[in-house]
Specification:
Two copies of one chain form a homodimer. Chain A is of the alpha+beta class. Chain A folds into four domains: 7-126, Butyryl-Coa Dehydrogenase, subunit A, domain 1, CATH 1.10.540; 133-278, Butyryl-CoA Dehydrogenase, subunit A, domain 2, CATH 2.40.110; 281-424 and 630-634, Butyryl-CoA Dehydrogenase, subunit A, domain 3; 426-453 and 461-466 and 487-626, Butyryl-CoA Dehydrogenase, subunit A, domain 3 (Up-down Bundle). Helices cover 54% and strands 11% of the residues of chain A. Chain A contains 23 helices and 13 strands. Chain A has helices spanning 7-17, 21-30, 44-58, 78-86, 88-91, 93-113, 119-126, 269-278, 281-306, 327-358, 365-396, 398-402, 408-415, 425-444, 449-457, 472-480, 493-522, 524-530, 532-556, 561-581, 583-588, 594-611, 615-621; strands spanning 132-135, 151-155, 160-164, 172-176, 184-193, 196-206, 218-222, 234-239, 242-245, 254-256, 262-264, 310-313, 320-322. In chain A, strand 2 and strand 3 (160-164) form a beta hairpin. In chain A, helix 14 packs across helix 17 and helix 20 (561-581) runs antiparallel to helix 22. Mean pLDDT of chain A is 93; it is low at 445-468. The interface between A and B is large, with 74 and 74 residues.
Amino acid sequence: MATASSDTAKALIAALDGPWHDIREEARSLLAGEQFAGDPALDYRAARERVLGQMRELATLDFVQRGYRTEHGGTGDPGGAVVGMEMLAYADLSLWVKAGVQWGLFGGAVENLGTERHRDYIDRLMSLDLLGCFAMTETGHGSDVARLETTAAYDAATQEFVVHSPTPSARKDYIGGAAEHARMAAVFAQLVVGGESQGVHCFLVPIRDAAGADLPGVTTSDCGLKGGLPGVDNGRIMFDHVRIPRENLLNRYADVAPDGTYSSDIDNPSRRFFTTLGTLVRGRVSVGGAAAAAARAALSIAARYALRRTQFVNPDTGEETLLLDYRMHQRRLLPLVARSYALAFAQNDLVGRMHKIQSGHASDPAEQRALEKRAAGLKAAQTRHATRAIQECREACGGAGYLTENRLVTLKADTDVFTTFEGDNVVLMQLVAKELLTGYAEEVRELDALGWVRFAATLASDVVRERSGVRQLIQTLRDRGGETVEEGDLSRRETQLKLLADREDYLVRTAAHRLRARAEETGPFEAFNNAQDHILEAGAAHIDRIVLEAYIEGLEGISDPEARDLAERLCDLYVYTVLEENRDWFIMHRFMSVERAKAVRRGVNELVSTLRPHALTLVEGLGVPESMLRAEILTQ
Amino acid sequence: MATASSDTAKALIAALDGPWHDIREEARSLLAGEQFAGDPALDYRAARERVLGQMRELATLDFVQRGYRTEHGGTGDPGGAVVGMEMLAYADLSLWVKAGVQWGLFGGAVENLGTERHRDYIDRLMSLDLLGCFAMTETGHGSDVARLETTAAYDAATQEFVVHSPTPSARKDYIGGAAEHARMAAVFAQLVVGGESQGVHCFLVPIRDAAGADLPGVTTSDCGLKGGLPGVDNGRIMFDHVRIPRENLLNRYADVAPDGTYSSDIDNPSRRFFTTLGTLVRGRVSVGGAAAAAARAALSIAARYALRRTQFVNPDTGEETLLLDYRMHQRRLLPLVARSYALAFAQNDLVGRMHKIQSGHASDPAEQRALEKRAAGLKAAQTRHATRAIQECREACGGAGYLTENRLVTLKADTDVFTTFEGDNVVLMQLVAKELLTGYAEEVRELDALGWVRFAATLASDVVRERSGVRQLIQTLRDRGGETVEEGDLSRRETQLKLLADREDYLVRTAAHRLRARAEETGPFEAFNNAQDHILEAGAAHIDRIVLEAYIEGLEGISDPEARDLAERLCDLYVYTVLEENRDWFIMHRFMSVERAKAVRRGVNELVSTLRPHALTLVEGLGVPESMLRAEILTQ
């Protein structure tokens, strides 16, 4: 159970837990034991064994079933599955990754890309009778999945696919489970029928026998030591004309008949490809959530330490000063706590949207696409936050922070790859921006040159922002924010929302202009590349805005008045921090006067100062049980 | 020898090597072999043994002697000692730290705080006949050395000091060498004579017998696993009334006579304390240098990879695009390369100043103090740069960057503590700012209230900047920079220098005002704490300015015209990056118009774009031999 020394903290925990409070509370008690913790003293081979043992224990709990449909033996709770698994991040990130590979990626591929004929696999993979891996990335291609080189050529004579790695760069690489434990791989490969390529599809390929030896034609190898995640057996796979039955194609969106006829309900190959990948959105949702959880754990350690540790005497009092009483220490940690609250609300919102779609309550392609955009952006934002926050926490704990016994270096090392896997952050933020620009282009596609100019002049209007999915509260605030921002009170949510929304609109609009103007001169790639920094900034601005919206909506759910008051002030701190980080932009683009920009800085200082007395409550509110922190400095 | 494919690259290497080109070239060839490399596959116990073996090999080379005076059997080349050791960072940072503890910290304490009676120790520690450690930090106090709790009470009856750890927080902590190898510790403790404390002094305390067992009264323990540096045996020491001979006080600045009479040539206890610590400046100089070296190694790996690795097809050409042809990738890496050049020149300048003072050619206390300020600031700046740059390099190499075989994660983990040890960066930057404010206070101490107001109005004047140590070239540029900055061409060094200097002046001046104004209301601590973020910013601005000065001076030494041209453009990139990072400040304080701020961003984009074709030359210029990179991704 979550540790809380006050009702206020309990109310904050419940708010951040959101609709999954019960699942989180159950996980806090189930996972608190030593048996699910990581053991950094183990070498990587022993760590892998330990994690596999923990997985077997997990398989007996109800964590796993949630992720699967009832007709497959699951309990059909995709949101609960993501949230429950996320809690593993407090215990050990290797365990979280390994569980995610088995039940999220491998299991998710079978569940979502497979059909009735693959159904037996689901039982086996849930119970760990079948250990699998997810073989998408290759040495030569990670972000550009469409260009994977592995081939799966259909041989109608034997009704088999021949899976093959034609070049060294076609080698499957970094694949969790491929080094030791996986017996089967979900392999993404170019499907070739009758000599013609049909694009990337997913195949189930047995890779090891029961004794763990590579099957004929399969050569696995070990990625060996990594920056962290010692309990995950990342490896490589080469295929030398490996034959698998025709039925091993996961054929939900496309199939090959015994005679070699290719068919698909989705005519457009590009749409088919993106539909296939889209079913895997749960992985991105999960990575962002786990990264944010790791950041909460690190902040819980560093902030609690800063409430115990003194250094230097205050000459005015003659007593040593607590670290958290220093202005800089407040400024280092409290804005990160605020962002953690913001992202927690945003993650709950994201999981809710995913749950709705994946529970079959919504199947609008536009909603699926919006979900993918949001998942991509929040994955990037949350993993970036984790990298920054954990680093700051490590440094804020000084030499103690560097000792493994205080956990921060393990959290840092384990999460370091989160900015890379399940989509490189730069590529993901580009995807977000591209979606924004597409939405924009649809609005203005019909305009002629003069229309563009006129359109560009209407900077304050609200053409870009998606209209779907905006809920009433936010809409009301937006409508109220109609006055010019300079006049608005910076502590009003309307003004805050308008500032972030205006920034997003402006960046998207001007990026679109720039792309269009340059594309005619230089070709689309040069135009894109020339504006890449601008485009990424637009993506980031979008995420800042939707995170604030989620925070505002989350506030509504807090009925405890003290908790609400603290969460409101922390929301201000989140906004002020975002404004401070981008104040050059706001001034340069005349969205903020110099005086207001100075007020923002003062505002951050005032907020950290007034929140300082409530630091413990705020940290407890993050919801990481003290028993799961496992930092020696907090026990001495 | 340094790898260079062109004369231009060779000229850049020579420029960055500075006056120590020969020493660096020698080290590049001596240290390139496998025997000095780290082996990440070893567990920490084996890694410690390996590093100790490497130390024994190093002890036979001339690396060690340079750091000691000729009368002590050294070759008396303090600058060469720092630079030669720095090159170890390319081989293995554990080795660098372990060597630094033995010959820099422990040896340096004996050499600089000891006298003739400690001379025999020098021979023994140089040859590794005596392994030592440097026991300053305690569990309770790291940054606040004056409040160390360990005591050394003089017992005139036996002519011994009794070294004691009176509380758990008095335990010596994180001490390199204390876990296994050290036989003797240079212990910083409160000297107590006749019941009266004389402040912190340094004592040589034997801690282990020849077999490695703790001596009576000494309890050592092991810090165990850390974030990195597995080859360094960090440990803890508790003293239980351990008796050492009177002569084991390192008595250069103070002594205790057999009868217990305390004497010192330095009357003021505070000055005595700071003089003692001041002799240890070489440690800070060294840490900054090694951090910058590690950043150069990481950038060499990431940039070379970005010149081999492609991802995504350019639709205009149909070919896959090299990572370094992406605008964002250029923006991620090239400004860090520019900053590495800038810091390399600044480090050479710093080492030169240290060399001059420590070779006895200068002994002005003001110069010593200026050296300490500069060493503190550049330590903070370079370790911060290393942390950011290596993280960026890791991410810029994607999944490959996370594999230990590609070295980046090891560089990150090993350097992570550099922002903490030899002075926490926040505390160091405060020290810099405090020195700046002290200089300022001396200038204006005599002014009355009206004088302050008038003084504050002369914002463009140049009161603050230290006048000593400014060399002719910079003075000339400063004199030329008299026009208002808005009119100046941003590509002119005069204008660049003036912008950075104006920022520093303004920040220091306003910080002084603010402190003075508030101190009367709230007491000095509250006043300081309230302005802490402002004060730290002033320190950072100072460092930005002196780094630019060092770069400008370094440029003068490049005679090869192509190398000079590239280094000049890279200097622009350094300046533009600093301006871009701080453009909110420049605009808000009216040192820059919005138009100019926009030009700065365009300038960064133009510079990275024009430098892109020269990327390999620039990276070779960093001077890390390809043979020392040891990244598998570069060999495939």
